[in-house]
Amino acid sequence: MKANGHHYLSYPYRTWITLSILVGFLVTGCGVHRRSITPEDVAKVAAARDSLPAREETPTVATDSLPTGSVETVKALRDSLDQSIATSDSLSEEGRRAESVDSIPTDSLRKDSVVPDSLLSELKAPMDFTSNDSIAIYPKRNIVRMYGEGTINYGDNKITGDFMEMKTDSGTIFSTYIDYPDSLKKERHYAKITTGQDEYEAKSMRYNVKTQRGYITDVITKQGEGYVVAQQTKRMENSDLYMKDGKYSTCENHEHPHYYIAMTEAKVRPAKDLVSGPVYLVVADVPLPIGLPFAFFPFTTKRSSGLLMPTYGEEGDRGFYLRNGGYYLALNDHVDLEVTGDLYTKGSWGLTGRSTYRRRYRHSGSVNASYLKTNRGDRIAGDYSESTDFRIAWSHQQDPKADPYRTFSANVNFSTSSYNHNDLNALYNQAMMGQNTKSSSISFSRRFPNSPWSITGSVDITQRSQDSTVAVTLPNLSWSASRIFPFKRKKAVGKERWYEKISLSYSGQLRNSITTKENQLFRTNLIRDWRNGVSHSIPVSASFDLFNYFKVTPSVSYNERWYSSRVTRAYDPEKNDIIPVDTTYGFNRVYDFRASLALSTTVYGFFKPMSWVPWAGKNVEMIRHRMEPSISLNYQPDFADPKFGYWEHLQYISRDGRQLDRWYSPYDGQLFGVPGRGKSGSVSLSVSNNVEAKLAAKNDSVKARKISLIDNLSFSTSYNFAADSFRWSDFQANIALRFTKDFTLRLGGSFDPYIWDYYEYDGKVVPYRVDKLRIAAGKGIGWFRGTSTSFSYNLNPKTLSELLAKVGLRRKDEKDEGDDTTNPPGTEQRPRGGSGNSPDGGGSLFSSGQSDLEYDPYGYSKNVIDWNLGFNYSLTMGQGPFDPRIREFTYKFSQDLSFNGNLSVTKNWHFNFSANYNFQLNKITNMSCNLQRDLHCWSMRASFIPVGPYKSYNFSIAVDASLLQDLKYQESSHPQRTNPWYY
To answer: Which terminus of the chain is less hemmed in, N or C, by CB atoms within 10 Å?
Structure first.
């Protein structure tokens, strides 16, 4: 069907048409002014078309499937739209600017001119048209129109929109959206253009596929961490964007961002940078008197070198400061370097260097070195102090794929004792502020394939900040051979021989260490001050079954130690003690050996408790008792014999006239110890027990289950037949009770079987042990020396629900209030900040938000509030002072309690804290609290220390994006730390 010379091609379903067009049309209207098609014009046509059952036009290719009738309105609207295109005297200024993108003139005075040569070029690739509604072709006017989510693909260009129009003679494409009435409930599709990796979304745009230039209104494009929005934009053939009245913000609410940087004019190089003229800050649509004459925003995804802007602030005792300012160097793809400095107005300063490195499938790590010069107080007032601190941190990890036989790792955290107390970054870090012991280690290992040998080495450093003590082990080298069976036949024939079960292994160690003050570490002498030694250990053992019920294990071990010095001691009457008088350096060999024979077995016992037992009843089907007794014979010669030379005997008269005997070893204090004094021919006894119960099933659908009544109950002791006194050793006892799946109470202790007495010396009570059993003196089996235990627990909604269910206050299948995730009456289930899809889901950039599937419209959790409370408690019972009245030692108790927690009332509010309680002072000694509020594209943080000598607070509100990390407000207070720190 043909009407008014126009041919309409319509389809009731999605239509795909591929056109290969060669530009062969002559230029017939180069000087004609055209009026731009506005979204309002398109909306009128679309609304009328949607309200009518049929179209009057008849396609030339396909049969019109629409019935006739009610076509005059559409015809009039279409004619008016066609006339508006050809009208030359009604062109607005904006329309002339938009039309000029067909070929942007070189003469800026002729905005409506068109370069004729560009119209004679040919399309270099096929052009695909797609429309969900219909496509209209105007051959005489060289126009193609697409209604309803159209798409044009040309090369690497893709253009979409609700309404699209293409001029086939010039290659200009116009795309816009249709502002459907809400009553139609139709989703609008904004104009979108994708060229290569660049993507822009706008309310309307004109784009020339030949010149690759375009004019865009209300454009949105994502660049780096933020979004660039502009009312008027021209795109050049090199993808550069020239913008007017633009905004830059990291907020996803593009219509009304929470904040943005307003730009009068700007140039954007996609994925590179943005350069702008005068800019000013706008918060909540309110312009602020904060501006700059120009702005530069880098968008590079690769690392690049550049300046690091410092942060400013004030600290009470060091004055105003500029911190973390410096330079960043991207040395190559594997290594970078960051050098920053701190400067305070009262003379303090600091310098920090950081570097990270990474080689794929090989290793990765980071290095951090800091130097801090701190001046406090006033010279005139007399409280002036200076301190110099440094810190070296190194973390290195080897990729497991790098080498299966060789490993190297490092975890270094070495600093002066007062560093954490002078570093501003550690002030609100509870872990760093309360850190008394710091450890550093550099280690490597090497395994040899097809060999039992391996070698490991390390450098270990332990620091104690409380008294600035440092312990260094350099090196700590170990080598070993795994267990081998030297007599096992390579080709076994028949039964295994008894000697084939004999196995041996070897381990050796070389160690060189020192313990001193940190300011004396580099002044020590390697020979005089460092302790060093080498140890060797060779155990030989075998295991045999006896009568199928007993296991017999004979074993022999040999140990040897090499030391470089020995110390001779003598009695000093003035000090009334034995003191070192001479040190001899040289090679000293110390060895010992021992033999043992062990016999062990396992015994099981089963019994069913009587029905009258209250705690058993009918629920307990059976109780199983497993007992593992063992006995061993041990022998070791007396290495205090003069022929060995490992021990010396001194006889002297003390200042109070008593004649005393004292044994000492010239190798006391050496790294690997000294062989024991006295002959040993002992018998060791031990027994361990485990008790479990089997509970009957309540019904057929539930299986019977086992519970542990006593996880472990063990006792051990020994009796030395070869000793001349104190033949019984301490009695050892351990118990483990499992109360829940996650909590087991473990207690262990020792009992002294002998009594104690005392004598007085210089007015002091000196206790000593007496070779008399306590049971013979009527004081029981043994004196309890002490024990310790600790446990931790986390209480949260889940664990609380389980506890309430166990005590019967709540059923296990009961749901929390608000467990129903369906929408309650009167609530909406949609993203906050407007309707539409998230950009991550492929929706429009004009409206985006976050899903609230687990929260109500006010941001509160529909389920239970997310919270957690955890605590760690330890109790130690140990030996206290000796009481001469009862001739017994007293007990002393020590307790430690630390607790932490977090609370999230809504998805945006978060609170956490940590604290320690001192039982001796009966108060909380230190506590740190943190409050955080997620403000969408901003974050508010408040940290405060409410108690202790470092009582202070810190408040900040800042933009989340790292590019705008200096766009923030910060307020803080700092404690006056006048007490000197020991170093």
So the answer is: N
